[in-house]
Design brief:
The complex is a heterodimer of chains A (about 325) and B (about 250). Chain A is about 30% helix and about 20% strand. Chain A is α/β, with parallel strands linked by helices. Chain A has a domain at about 50-130 and about 205-325: 3-Layer(aba) Sandwich (Rossmann fold), CATH 3.40.50. Chain A has a 7-stranded mixed β-sheet with strand order 1-11-10-4-9-8-7, sandwiched between helices. A 4-stranded antiparallel β-sheet of chain A has the order 3-2-5-6. In chain A, a hairpin with a 2-residue loop joins β5 (about 110-115) and β6 (about 120). The chains are: A alpha/beta (about 325), B mainly alpha (about 250).
Amino acid sequence: MSTNVQKFSDQFPIPVEPGFDPRFPVHAGAPGGKVGPVSVGRVARPVSPGVSKVGLSEICLSYRTQKGERLLALDHINLQVRAGEFVCIVGPSGCGKSTLLHLIAGLHQQTSGQVLIDGKPVQGPGTDRIMIFQEHALFPWLTVGQNVEFGMKMKGVPKAEREEKTRYYLKLVHLAKFEKSYIHQLSGGMRQRVAIARALATEPDVLLMDEPFAALDAQTRDLLHDELERIWSETGRTIIFVTHNVREAIRLGDRVVLMTFRPGRVKSEFLVDLPRPRHLEDPDVARTAREILDELREEINRSLEAEYKEGVRPHVETDVEGEVRV
Amino acid sequence: MKRAARFVIFYAALFGLWTLLAELKIWPPYLFPTPWGVGEALYAGFQDHTYWIAIRVSMERVLIGYAISVVLGMILGLGVASNKFLEETMGGLLVSLQSLPSICWWPLALLWFGLNQNAILFVVVMGSLLSVTLAMEDGRKQMPKIFGQAGRNLGAKGFKLFWYVLLPASLPFIVSGLKQGWAFAWRSLITAEMLYLSLGLGQVLMMGRDLNDMSAVIAVMILIIALGYIVDGIVFKGMERHLQNKWGLTSAT
C-alpha cells in the first residue's frame, strides 16, 4: 500500500484548513465513527452550510426512460469542496459524473437534494460557476477574443474593461496572438486553452471541467495539465474536474472521488498528497492510480455487464495510462 | 478556363438557336421576337423609366414582405421547435400548408385587405413564411445543444441568449431555408402583381401581353430572373461564404 494515498478513514491528521474539518469527512457515518470506504454515500452526515465552497447534499436525480421506467442516475450524492481545492471525479462512463457537473452549473435540476455554493442553494446557471466542456463548446461564429469576452458582455462589463481582461486572460493561456482568429483555425489544445480563458474571464469562483482534455493527444494533454496546474495556483480557483482517466485525476487533484456505476454514488474518496508538480509518468502517480483502478475496475465491470445486457458489445481495454476505454 | 468556355459555348448555341428560329419566321415576329428585339425592348423600358419604377416598387414590396416573414418565421419556428405541444400540433399543419400555392391566399387577401398593397404583401408573407418557419424549426433542432448550454452557463438568458447564441448558432442550418423563403417571396410577389394593376414588374409583364408585345414580355421575364438571381448570388451566397469562413465549414461544391 502506498503511503502517498490514503482513504480518508486511514488518515485523520491531514493539515487543517479553516472551514474544513478533516475528522468529519463528507461521508463519515457518524461523528468520530469509523468511516467505511465503500458505499458511504447513503449515510452522509449533513455538513453545516457555509463550510464549503461547493456543497452537494443528498443529490438524487432520476428520469424516465423511453420505455417509461424510472431510472435512478444519481443516488444521494454528498460532496464538499473547499475553496481553492482541486477535486477530481472519476468513474466509468454512465455513472453520472458529467450530469453532476451540469447540476452544479445549474443547467439541469436535480430531483431532490441541494447544490450549495457558499452555503446558498443554486438556482439556475450563474457566472460564479463556469463549465469547460469536453470540446465543441466554443462559439464558432465568434473570434477567439470575442469568445473570451462573451461572458463579460452578457454581464454588462464596459467595453474597455472587457478588452483589457480578454487580453489578460489570453496572455495567461499563451494565446495573445490569436485574438482575431476563428475557432476552426486553432488546434484542439489551443481550443481548450481558449475555453479555459473564456471561463476564467467571467471570474468564476468555481471551474467545472467536464473531461476537458479527453479528446486531445497525449503530448498536448501533458502540456495542458502543466498549464492548468499553473493557472490554478496563480488564480486560486476551486476546480471540480471530471475524468475517466485515473492517472489524470491523480496528476491534478488534491482529492479523487470515485463514483459507482448506475446509479451514481460516491464509492470512495482518496486524498492525494503527492508533491506538486506531478507528472503522469511519475512512479508514485502510477502506483496510486493502480490502487484506485482496482476499486474502479469493479464498477467498470458492472458497467460492461449492463452494456452487454443492453446488447451493445463494447471494445474494452485498460491502457497503461490508467485510462479506461470502452 | 474550361468552365468559362463551356459557359460561352452553351449561351452562344442558345442564342444561335433562338436567332435561327426567329429568322426562319415560322411564327409571326410579334409572337416570337428576335434577341435584339428583346434587347431594344429592355433599352426602351429603362429609357422611359418604366422598368426602373417597376423594379423599385417590386423590390420594396418583396423586401417588406420578406422581412415580415423572417421575423415571424423565426419566432414561429423557435416556438414550434422548443414546445412539444406546438410541435405535435402546429408542426404538421405547417408542413401541409406548404403544399398550398401562396396565390391561393389572393381571394382571401382581397376580401380582408381590399385591392391594395397590403393584399400583395399578405400573399408574399404567406408565400415565404412557411419556408422560414420550417427552416428555423429545423435549424434549432440541428443546432448542437452544447451552444445553448455554454451560453446559459456564461450568463446569457432570454432575448440575449436568443440573439447572441441561438440565432448565430443556427444560422448555418437555416441559411438554405432563408434562401428558399426568398425565392418563394419573389415568385409570390410577381404572381400577385400580375393579378392586380400595381406598377410592379408583374404588371409590366401583363402590359406586354395586353399590347401583344412579346419582346417586352420576354424583356421583363429576363429582368425578373436577373433580379432573383442577383439577390440569391450576392446576398445569400455572400452569407453562406461568410458563414463557411467563420465556422470553417467547407463549401459543398
